[in-house]
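Researcher: Checking consistency across runs. Here is DNA-binding protein H-NS again:
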Amino acid sequence: MAVDIKNLNHNQLNDLITKAQSRQTELRKDKVVKLREKIHALIKAEGFVFDDVFGARGKVKRVGGTVAPKYRNPASPEQTWSGRGKRPRWFNEALKAGKKEKDLLV
């Protein structure tokens, strides 16, 4: 299929380029899907599962404990904060009320 691009105007050329790039992406995705199916079939034929061959990538849980609380709400002692992440509302409210961070330490 030959397209005579010399007779196309600017908009027609841009449209053709966009369609060609879109088609190229579709073909690549189809090829990847077929390759993935072949790999899974080969792994299964050998008696393994994907994780045996490639490991549990993306499924590994981080090992670590919880962080000890650093701050405690004086009005409600069961509310604590480790000092990491977004400040809890009670912490911000205590600061607005005139408390200092060192006053809220555990």
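Researcher: Does this match what you'd expect to see?
Model: One thing to look at in this run: The chain has a mean pLDDT of 89.
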